[in-house]
Amino acid sequence: MEERCVIIGAGLGGLSCGAVLARHGFSVTVLEQGNQAGGCLQTFVRDGLKFETGMHFIGSAAQGEILDTLFRYLGIREGLELHELDRNGYEIVTYKGQDFPFRNGRDAFVEGLVEFFPRQRDNLARYMDTVIKASAASSVESFNPERVMDPDDAVWHTRSVDSVIEGITDDPDLREILAGNQPLYAGVKGHTPFALHAFITSFYNRSAWRIAGGSDTIAKLLIGCITDAGGRVMTGCKAVGIVCDETRATGVRYLTDGGEDLLAADYVISTIHPSLTVGMVHSPLFRPAFRKRIQEMPDTIGVFELYLKFKKNTVPYMNANRFVYTNRSVWGCDCYTTDDWPRGFLYMHQWPQGDSRYADAGVILVYMRGDDIVAWNDTLTGRRGDGYREFKRLKADRLLATASEYIPGLREGVERYWTSTPLTYRDYTGAAGGGLYGIAKDVELGQSGRVSYRTRVRNLLLAGQSVNSHGILGVLVGSMVVCDSLLGNGVLYDGIRRASNDIEWK
Ligand SMILES: Cc1cc2nc3c(=O)[nH]c(=O)nc-3n(C[C@H](O)[C@H](O)[C@H](O)COP(=O)(O)OP(=O)(O)OC[C@H]3O[C@@H](n4cnc5c(N)ncnc54)[C@H](O)[C@@H]3O)c2cc1C
Asked: Which of residues 171, 206, 241 is at a domain's end?
């Protein structure tokens, strides 16, 4: 008989686990609380334009690179149309009013910044070498969370981004600029491990891409893989309990329109926020100390998002992402006051649906803390009232005014806009407090700040952005590790190797 695997959450984590396991003969059911599958891959349509909510660009997707290989292994590469960002400046950090482009490739990255910092060539080379070394040492790149780490490499997990960069260059401005991509991991000075910065920086430094047609394409393709292999994705089904006997999970209780139901399971994979998973397990196998540790882990900050519809053929398409800082530091953008918000923002265009010379949609992301929106904590999307609408309008006006100071023609180019807050994310993805990337990694917490994919309920496994790492690569690698533990015998890694011979496996 086929082994039954119930997966909680139909975001990237749940859908990728489902696609692999269904293909390998498991009877897969993915439960999704929302009416749309995809989690952060979801999109929404306004005025005929599709907007991406939580996956705006991806990296390492050129042929033979790590994400390309994973897409091929999953069987979704053919269905994706990707467009590469400008190799001479895929990311631009605007700091003290000047633009600093990040170029693809180690040498080009160094030379690009040497133009602004001619005396820093050696330090820039040392920075890139450190990024590459630390990234190669991470569990993400090695695909193995239990890999015994070289003691020399452990330091990347115990030292913060800023402290490592400070050890590389004494130029105060260059220190800031090198950390300018921190919104990609919600970096906190003194806390975020350099390992996270390194893996994300090197991921995009190899190559950076937009997904034509929108991020939901990935979700749709993965759902196709699951259903083609006989599995199913059930939307509108919120998991509320993981039923256990003395040693293992036996099923998942879930809510539907018709009431509560139970799905029997040989394996359960939960891809939602670990604190929510822990709350669903009423078994003494989860000890109080473990529950407390998980419940108390810090979350990443949330964002206010401004979705822009541009006037037709007005705003030239920008084939790069811009990190703009209005303050003298790229750090501490989360410590804003009412008066100096926003201290920084991330501005991106989507790949145009029409004439590719002009952008039709763009997005601005800016940090927003929970205390800004606490008044509406007990409300649900669409029913938060006039006060909330007015709050969003004021924030949108302020953000657009600030962004227009740095991006000429922006305000004039905007035809309409829509907004979301961390509460929107909380309600659409179940993210605790609406945090951007799930649980925050923190050098001060050491190993107790990490969530293992294995639990003391031996057939209950964890995946999703809080477990391994966030983002398309972090989540996919976490899913592969979980699936490998169920498939065994190196089946999964053999499959990935076959998908590409171009990657050097460690
Ligand atoms: C604003 C934003 C921008 C981002 N930009 C990028 C980017 O450009 N590139 C990149 O690589 N990454 C980006 N990320 C990160 C990336 O999108 C996420 O790390 C990743 O998609 C998370 O996938 P997941 O499956 O772990 O979680 P999610 O996508 O959150 O999926 C979890 C799913 O579980 C469901 N769920 C929750 N509770 C229950 C329950 N009780 N029962 C059933 N279902 C439940 C939720 O509804 C949701 O669908 C961004 C994230 C955000 C928020």
From this structure: 206
